[in-house]
Design brief:
Rossmann fold, 19 helices, about 525 residues, binds GDP-alpha-D-glucose, alpha/beta
């Protein structure tokens, strides 16, 4: 990990959390140690051919935001090491990494059966499709559920050994929804918060889960449950109402208190974000500018449309390609004037659905290019199946005139926010699915689309292509301001204050913060 950027983040975190909020109001500062729990550690430990361990650092927004907080408060990050084989020597490698990081790393080992049943099975073949409204892709195998409980129990045991009474435990994501319940059954009384990075489905979808009551009860054992959006929070409360009958909800604003049966907890919406400053700074660097120019030289005299996604059926890549084809079919003036760069980052390729998705995408790219490409001339779709270096990613963001971010369903979607941060000339257009969590915050600057509406998306592409300079600038300025003011550091502080300080009047609300719309504003 880049040391300078860490210093920068630490400084940023301190200016946010230590002294005053953005309105200059003094903020309380408590110093509970933080225990972060996530499925994967921020570092991946892999065997070298010589039998040692090599460490690869995570560089995502969550890691860069939490590392300075962990250093500042002290604490531990607990998670799976990423390896499932012989762990000899791993403790030493982790101790070295902890030393460098300035806080503890604690590993939970999974064996091959855990990886199959807990990780690929329950997490990625049950919860992932179900929570993204795709129940037909779920494999409700009881052995997956048993393994999920067992692995969550192991995480809870490690947690109980690790944390002290005054610590605050922050558990992340859908792999670990049972951790609080398991920890409570071991007698653990520390304050525990949870954040769900993916959407929470409405009752008619959630109720298909054979273990729905257990899972709801398990979530209620956290002291604060964080969702990305109002919609997710509302879905969760509706599921509770239907499952538990007597449910009371008190309070208003970002966090409400919910009592269901014997349990009372707090439930809030906290839209995750990115390290805006870092993206904007790096996008402005000479290296990124040169790479972006090179892309324009390679693909001259046209506007570039960009799609960047992990290979995943929730990201709506085939729908997007069909919409792009429809735009070329119905708006001939776009031909030779527009190219789509579609980057697909390999992911979960050993799962059959992902493999067939890849084939479908490649067939569509072949069809579109076969129909419109002229030998030696314009290529409508540039398809890249690979992960990108950070500077290539930024160069694509910076070079693209239009971003097509059209997931069928997404917890937030950070690509949309990163694109805005990198559009430093403020001349670009974001086309965004109304089913991405990000739509709640970005709806006023983006062109919102229904990704299932092929003609609607095609029309949005045409509208973005023909949009006046003034409209593009106004929209992008608004988008960038929103992302800058509610960045990843704001997100961490907001969540931790809600969790630890409890006094929500101390929220560091940026002055121009655009509150989330009322739940029915976005047609979801
Ligand atoms: C889950 C939820 C929620 C992508 N390709 C490359 C690359 N990326 C980076 C992007 C971005 C991240 O990966 C993808 O984040 P998303 O938010 O779009 O999606 P998920 O991975 O599905 O994340 C999602 C998120 O959690 C956070 O709560 O927003 O809804 O599903 O940061 O930049 N990075 C590099 N090369 C690539 O090729 N270096």
């Amino acid at each position: 990990m880049n040391r300078d950027s860490n210093k920068d983040h630490k400084h940023r975190h301190e200016t946010y959390a230590a002294k005053s909020d953005s309105r200059g109001k003094p903020m309380k500062r408590s110093k509970e140690r933080l225990i972060v729990v996530s499925n994967r550690l921020p570092y991946v430990f892999a065997r070298t051919p010589e039998g040692g361990w090599k460490t690869e650092g995570g560089s995502g927004g969550l890691v860069s935001a939490l590392v300075p907080v962990l250093r500042d408060r002290g604490g531990t990050w607990l998670g799976w090491t990423g390896s499932s084989g012989d762990g000899t020597g791993l403790d030493q490698a982790m101790a070295q990494a902890s030393e460098q990081l300035g806080f503890n790393l604690r590993g939970v080992q999974l064996d091959a059966a855990d990886v199959d049943n807990f990780y690929h099975g329950f997490s990625n073949e049950v919860i992932w499709p179900l929570f993204h409204d795709l129940p037909s892709l779920c494999v409700f195998d009881p052995k997956y559920w048993h393994s999920y409980k067992e692995v969550n129990r192991r995480f809870a045991e490690a947690l109980v050994e690790e944390c002290g009474k005054a610590d605050f435990v922050w558990v992340h994501d859908y792999h670990l929804m049972n951790v609080a319940a398991e920890a409570r059954s071991l007698g653990c009384k520390v304050r525990m918060g949870f954040f769900l990075h993916i959407p929470f489905p409405p009752p008619d979808i959630f109720f298909k889960l054979p273990w729905r009551s257990s899972l709801l009860h398990a979530l209620l054992r956290f002291d604060l449950i964080g969702f990305q959006t109002v919609r997710d929070r509302r879905n969760f409360i509706q599921c509770l109402r239907l499952s538990e009958g007597q449910v009371t909800v008190q309070g208003k604003g970002n966090v409400v208190t919910v009592t269901a049966g014997a349990y009372t907890t707090r439930v809030g919406n906290f839209p995750i974000s990115i390290d805006y400053g870092n993206f904007a700074r790096q996008a402005a660097s000479a290296e990124v500018a040169a790479r972006a120019d090179e892309l324009h030289r390679l693909l001259p005299n046209r506007k570039l449309v960009l799609g960047i996604d992990r290979l995943d059926y929730t990201k709506g890549i085939p729908h997007r390609l069909r919409a792009f084809r429809d735009a070329l079919d119905r708006y001939p003036e776009l031909r030779e004037r527009l190219s789509l760069i579609q980057v697909v980052v390999p992911s979960r390729v050993d799962i059959p659905e992902y493999h067939s998705l890849k084939i479908e995408i490649e067939q569509l790219v072949g069809e579109i290019n076969g129909k419109y490409m002229r030998p030696g001339g314009w290529v409508p779709v540039w398809y890249v199946y690979s992960s990108l270096s950070r500077s290539d990613l930024l160069a694509y963001y910076r070079a693209a005139h239009i971003a097509l971010v059209t997931p069928l369903k997404d917890g937030m979607n950070l690509v949309a926010k990163e694109y805005c941060a990198c559009s430093i000339e403020e001349e670009c257009v974001l086309i965004l699915s109304e089913f991405a969590g990000a739509a709640a915050q970005l709806q006023r600057g983006a062109l919102l689309v229904n990704p299932h509406d092929m003609e609607g998306v095609a029309d949005a592409i045409y509208r973005a292509y023909t949009m006046s300079d003034d409209e593009r600038r106004n929209r992008m300025r608004r988008l960038r301001r929103g992302v800058r003011e509610c960045d990843i550091f704001w997100w961490v502080d907001t969540y931790l204050q809600a969790a630890i300080e409890r006094d929500l009047s101390d929220y560091p609300q940026p002055q121009n913060y655009v509150p989330e719309p009322t739940p029915d504003y976005v047609p979801i």
